[in-house]
Amino acid sequence: MVKKVLTIAGSDSLSGGGLQADLATFATQGVAGFSVISSLAIIEKDGVRIKPVDQSTFDAQLASVGQVDHFDAIKVGLLCSLEQIHSVVRFLKDYIGPVVVDPVLFFKEGNLTLERSIIKAYIEQLFPLATVATPNLREAMSLLGEDEIPKSKGAALNFTKQLSLSARCAILFKAGDEVLADQFVDLLIDEEGHPAVIRHKLIQSDYRDGAGCTLAAMLTARLAQNEELKDAAKTSIDFARQSILHGYTISSDREEGNVFPNWSLANDD
Protein backbone atom coordinates (compact mmCIF):
# COMPACT_ATOMS: atom_id res chain seq x y z
CA MET A 1 0.00 0.00 0.00
CA VAL A 2 1.30 3.44 -0.93
CA LYS A 3 2.23 5.60 2.06
CA LYS A 4 0.72 9.09 1.98
CA VAL A 5 2.57 12.06 3.51
CA LEU A 6 1.45 15.68 3.91
CA THR A 7 3.58 18.81 4.07
CA ILE A 8 2.19 22.13 5.31
CA ALA A 9 4.81 24.60 4.16
CA GLY A 10 5.78 27.69 2.22
CA SER A 11 6.43 27.61 -1.51
CA ASP A 12 9.96 28.48 -2.68
CA SER A 13 10.00 29.33 -6.38
CA LEU A 14 13.77 28.77 -6.50
CA SER A 15 13.25 25.26 -5.04
CA GLY A 16 15.90 25.63 -2.35
CA GLY A 17 13.50 24.71 0.43
CA GLY A 18 9.84 24.71 1.32
CA LEU A 19 7.31 22.35 -0.18
CA GLN A 20 9.40 21.92 -3.34
CA ALA A 21 12.23 20.36 -1.32
CA ASP A 22 9.73 18.39 0.75
CA LEU A 23 7.97 16.83 -2.24
CA ALA A 24 11.27 16.07 -3.96
CA THR A 25 12.48 14.30 -0.83
CA PHE A 26 9.24 12.37 -0.40
CA ALA A 27 9.55 11.11 -3.99
CA THR A 28 12.98 9.59 -3.30
CA GLN A 29 11.38 7.43 -0.60
CA GLY A 30 8.49 6.15 -2.70
CA VAL A 31 5.79 7.92 -0.68
CA ALA A 32 2.96 9.98 -2.15
CA GLY A 33 3.31 13.65 -1.23
CA PHE A 34 0.43 16.06 -0.60
CA SER A 35 0.75 19.75 0.24
CA VAL A 36 -0.91 22.75 1.85
CA ILE A 37 0.73 26.09 0.98
CA SER A 38 1.13 28.54 3.85
CA SER A 39 3.00 31.27 2.00
CA LEU A 40 5.02 32.28 -1.02
CA ALA A 41 8.72 32.82 -0.34
CA ILE A 42 10.14 35.30 -2.83
CA ILE A 43 13.91 34.86 -2.81
CA GLU A 44 15.76 37.98 -3.85
CA LYS A 45 19.48 38.68 -4.11
CA ASP A 46 19.46 40.67 -0.89
CA GLY A 47 16.93 38.76 1.19
CA VAL A 48 13.60 36.97 1.37
CA ARG A 49 10.07 38.34 1.16
CA ILE A 50 7.26 36.20 2.59
CA LYS A 51 3.75 36.62 1.27
CA PRO A 52 1.31 34.63 3.46
CA VAL A 53 -1.61 32.86 1.83
CA ASP A 54 -4.83 34.50 2.97
CA GLN A 55 -6.44 32.69 5.87
CA SER A 56 -9.57 31.53 4.03
CA THR A 57 -7.44 29.95 1.29
CA PHE A 58 -5.19 28.30 3.87
CA ASP A 59 -8.19 26.84 5.71
CA ALA A 60 -9.77 25.69 2.43
CA GLN A 61 -6.60 23.74 1.60
CA LEU A 62 -6.67 22.03 4.99
CA ALA A 63 -10.31 21.14 4.40
CA SER A 64 -9.44 19.81 0.95
CA VAL A 65 -6.74 17.41 2.14
CA GLY A 66 -9.27 16.17 4.69
CA GLN A 67 -10.59 14.05 1.80
CA VAL A 68 -7.52 11.83 2.14
CA ASP A 69 -8.45 8.81 4.25
CA HIS A 70 -5.27 8.89 6.32
CA PHE A 71 -1.79 10.38 6.22
CA ASP A 72 1.03 8.13 7.36
CA ALA A 73 2.96 11.18 8.56
CA ILE A 74 2.64 14.97 8.48
CA LYS A 75 5.35 17.63 8.26
CA VAL A 76 4.69 21.19 9.38
CA GLY A 77 7.06 23.84 8.05
CA LEU A 78 6.74 27.61 7.71
CA LEU A 79 3.68 29.12 9.41
CA CYS A 80 3.31 32.89 9.25
CA SER A 81 0.68 33.84 11.79
CA LEU A 82 -1.18 32.86 14.93
CA GLU A 83 -4.20 32.15 12.75
CA GLN A 84 -2.27 29.64 10.68
CA ILE A 85 -0.91 27.96 13.80
CA HIS A 86 -4.41 27.73 15.29
CA SER A 87 -5.75 26.19 12.07
CA VAL A 88 -2.98 23.58 12.01
CA VAL A 89 -3.53 22.78 15.69
CA ARG A 90 -7.23 22.14 14.99
CA PHE A 91 -6.28 20.01 11.98
CA LEU A 92 -3.84 17.89 14.01
CA LYS A 93 -5.87 17.41 17.17
CA ASP A 94 -7.65 14.28 15.93
CA TYR A 95 -4.72 12.98 13.89
CA ILE A 96 -3.02 9.76 14.95
CA GLY A 97 0.40 9.33 13.42
CA PRO A 98 3.87 10.87 13.31
CA VAL A 99 4.09 14.67 13.13
CA VAL A 100 7.36 16.49 12.39
CA VAL A 101 7.39 20.21 13.14
CA ASP A 102 10.21 22.16 11.52
CA PRO A 103 9.81 25.60 13.12
CA VAL A 104 10.96 28.02 10.41
CA LEU A 105 11.73 31.09 12.49
CA PHE A 106 14.83 32.31 10.65
CA PHE A 107 16.12 32.32 7.10
CA LYS A 108 19.79 32.25 6.17
CA GLU A 109 19.11 35.36 4.07
CA GLY A 110 17.55 37.23 6.98
CA ASN A 111 15.25 36.98 9.98
CA LEU A 112 11.57 36.32 9.79
CA THR A 113 9.64 38.92 11.78
CA LEU A 114 7.68 36.87 14.29
CA GLU A 115 5.89 38.13 17.35
CA ARG A 116 6.62 36.55 20.71
CA SER A 117 3.01 35.33 20.73
CA ILE A 118 3.84 33.10 17.74
CA ILE A 119 6.84 31.61 19.54
CA LYS A 120 4.60 30.98 22.55
CA ALA A 121 1.98 29.29 20.35
CA TYR A 122 4.61 26.92 18.97
CA ILE A 123 5.67 25.96 22.49
CA GLU A 124 2.26 25.72 24.12
CA GLN A 125 -0.01 24.54 21.30
CA LEU A 126 1.80 23.06 18.30
CA PHE A 127 4.81 21.20 19.69
CA PRO A 128 2.76 19.12 22.17
CA LEU A 129 0.96 17.64 19.14
CA ALA A 130 4.26 16.74 17.46
CA THR A 131 6.29 13.56 17.54
CA VAL A 132 9.49 15.54 17.05
CA ALA A 133 10.53 19.14 16.36
CA THR A 134 13.66 20.02 14.35
CA PRO A 135 14.92 23.52 15.24
CA ASN A 136 18.30 24.83 14.19
CA LEU A 137 20.54 26.76 16.60
CA ARG A 138 18.96 30.19 16.23
CA GLU A 139 15.45 28.76 16.28
CA ALA A 140 16.17 26.73 19.42
CA MET A 141 17.66 29.77 21.16
CA SER A 142 14.63 31.86 20.21
CA LEU A 143 12.21 29.18 21.42
CA LEU A 144 13.96 29.00 24.80
CA GLY A 145 14.59 32.73 25.02
CA GLU A 146 18.33 32.11 25.38
CA ASP A 147 21.10 34.46 24.25
CA GLU A 148 24.13 32.28 24.94
CA ILE A 149 25.21 29.49 22.58
CA PRO A 150 25.94 26.21 24.41
CA LYS A 151 29.65 25.57 23.88
CA SER A 152 30.17 22.04 25.18
CA LYS A 153 28.59 18.62 24.74
CA GLY A 154 27.08 18.76 28.23
CA ALA A 155 25.70 22.26 27.76
CA ALA A 156 24.23 21.34 24.38
CA LEU A 157 22.55 18.22 25.77
CA ASN A 158 21.11 20.18 28.68
CA PHE A 159 19.90 22.82 26.26
CA THR A 160 18.15 20.16 24.14
CA LYS A 161 16.58 18.54 27.21
CA GLN A 162 15.21 21.90 28.35
CA LEU A 163 13.65 22.48 24.96
CA SER A 164 12.15 18.97 24.90
CA LEU A 165 10.62 19.48 28.34
CA SER A 166 9.24 22.87 27.36
CA ALA A 167 7.89 21.65 24.01
CA ARG A 168 6.62 18.30 25.37
CA CYS A 169 7.89 16.42 22.34
CA ALA A 170 11.11 14.85 21.09
CA ILE A 171 13.71 17.29 19.77
CA LEU A 172 16.22 16.88 16.96
CA PHE A 173 18.38 19.95 17.56
CA LYS A 174 20.33 20.89 14.43
CA ALA A 175 23.13 22.59 16.33
CA GLY A 176 25.50 22.92 13.37
CA ASP A 177 29.14 23.95 13.81
CA GLU A 178 28.84 26.67 16.46
CA VAL A 179 28.51 24.34 19.45
CA LEU A 180 31.52 22.04 19.13
CA ALA A 181 34.55 23.42 17.29
CA ASP A 182 35.37 22.00 13.86
CA GLN A 183 32.43 19.59 13.77
CA PHE A 184 28.82 19.58 12.84
CA VAL A 185 26.67 18.13 15.58
CA ASP A 186 23.01 17.22 15.94
CA LEU A 187 21.45 16.29 19.27
CA LEU A 188 18.40 14.09 19.73
CA ILE A 189 16.21 13.77 22.80
CA ASP A 190 13.73 11.01 21.94
CA GLU A 191 10.16 10.44 23.14
CA GLU A 192 11.39 8.81 26.35
CA GLY A 193 14.02 11.44 27.10
CA HIS A 194 16.99 9.39 25.92
CA PRO A 195 19.83 11.54 24.52
CA ALA A 196 21.99 10.96 21.46
CA VAL A 197 24.79 13.10 20.03
CA ILE A 198 25.32 12.68 16.30
CA ARG A 199 28.64 14.13 15.11
CA HIS A 200 29.83 14.47 11.54
CA LYS A 201 32.58 16.18 9.61
CA LEU A 202 32.23 19.68 8.26
CA ILE A 203 31.15 19.96 4.64
CA GLN A 204 32.66 22.86 2.74
CA SER A 205 29.89 23.78 0.32
CA ASP A 206 27.95 26.83 -0.79
CA TYR A 207 25.04 24.60 -1.81
CA ARG A 208 23.03 24.48 1.40
CA ASP A 209 19.71 26.15 0.57
CA GLY A 210 16.97 23.76 1.68
CA ALA A 211 19.14 21.52 3.87
CA GLY A 212 16.89 21.91 6.92
CA CYS A 213 13.69 21.33 4.98
CA THR A 214 15.20 18.28 3.29
CA LEU A 215 16.30 16.76 6.59
CA ALA A 216 12.87 17.26 8.18
CA ALA A 217 11.09 15.93 5.07
CA MET A 218 13.26 12.82 5.06
CA LEU A 219 12.55 12.33 8.76
CA THR A 220 8.82 12.55 7.99
CA ALA A 221 9.09 9.99 5.19
CA ARG A 222 11.06 7.54 7.33
CA LEU A 223 8.64 7.85 10.25
CA ALA A 224 5.78 7.24 7.79
CA GLN A 225 7.46 3.92 7.05
CA ASN A 226 7.55 3.02 10.75
CA GLU A 227 11.26 3.56 11.30
CA GLU A 228 12.27 4.20 14.90
CA LEU A 229 12.98 7.87 15.65
CA LYS A 230 16.70 7.48 16.43
CA ASP A 231 17.32 5.45 13.27
CA ALA A 232 15.17 7.82 11.21
CA ALA A 233 17.12 10.81 12.55
CA LYS A 234 20.46 9.29 11.56
CA THR A 235 19.16 8.30 8.13
CA SER A 236 17.78 11.81 7.61
CA ILE A 237 21.01 13.52 8.65
CA ASP A 238 23.02 11.34 6.27
CA PHE A 239 20.53 12.02 3.47
CA ALA A 240 20.69 15.77 4.00
CA ARG A 241 24.50 15.64 3.95
CA GLN A 242 24.46 13.79 0.64
CA SER A 243 21.98 16.35 -0.68
CA ILE A 244 24.48 19.09 0.20
CA LEU A 245 27.38 17.20 -1.38
CA HIS A 246 25.35 16.82 -4.59
CA GLY A 247 24.07 20.40 -4.49
CA TYR A 248 23.96 22.65 -7.50
CA THR A 249 24.11 26.29 -8.53
CA ILE A 250 21.05 27.95 -10.03
CA SER A 251 22.93 30.78 -11.68
CA SER A 252 26.46 31.99 -12.36
CA ASP A 253 25.35 35.25 -10.71
CA ARG A 254 24.79 33.56 -7.34
CA GLU A 255 27.52 32.12 -5.16
CA GLU A 256 25.10 30.00 -3.15
CA GLY A 257 23.02 27.12 -4.45
CA ASN A 258 20.48 24.46 -3.56
CA VAL A 259 20.78 21.05 -2.03
CA PHE A 260 19.71 18.23 -4.35
CA PRO A 261 17.38 15.72 -2.66
CA ASN A 262 17.10 13.65 -5.85
CA TRP A 263 20.83 12.87 -5.90
CA SER A 264 20.28 9.10 -5.69
CA LEU A 265 18.06 9.15 -8.79
CA ALA A 266 20.21 11.44 -10.93
CA ASN A 267 22.09 10.42 -14.04
CA ASP A 268 25.72 11.33 -13.44
CA ASP A 269 26.55 11.57 -17.14
Automatic annotation (TrEMBL):
<keyword id="KW-0418">Kinase</keyword>
<dbReference type="Pfam" id="PF08543">
    <property type="entry name" value="Phos_pyr_kin"/>
</dbReference>
<keyword id="KW-0067">ATP-binding</keyword>
<keyword id="KW-0479">Metal-binding</keyword>
<keyword id="KW-0460">Magnesium</keyword>
<dbReference type="InterPro" id="IPR004399">
    <property type="entry name" value="HMP/HMP-P_kinase_dom"/>
</dbReference>
<protein>
    <recommendedName>
        <fullName>pyridoxal kinase</fullName>
        <ecNumber>2.7.1.35</ecNumber>
    </recommendedName>
</protein>
<comment type="similarity">
    <text>Belongs to the ThiD family.</text>
</comment>
<keyword id="KW-0808">Transferase</keyword>
<dbReference type="GO" id="GO:0008478">
    <property type="term" value="F:pyridoxal kinase activity"/>
</dbReference>
<keyword id="KW-0547">Nucleotide-binding</keyword>
<dbReference type="InterPro" id="IPR029056">
    <property type="entry name" value="Ribokinase-like"/>
</dbReference>
<feature type="domain" description="Pyridoxamine kinase/Phosphomethylpyrimidine kinase">
    <location>
        <begin position="12"/>
        <end position="251"/>
    </location>
</feature>
<dbReference type="InterPro" id="IPR013749">
    <property type="entry name" value="PM/HMP-P_kinase-1"/>
</dbReference>
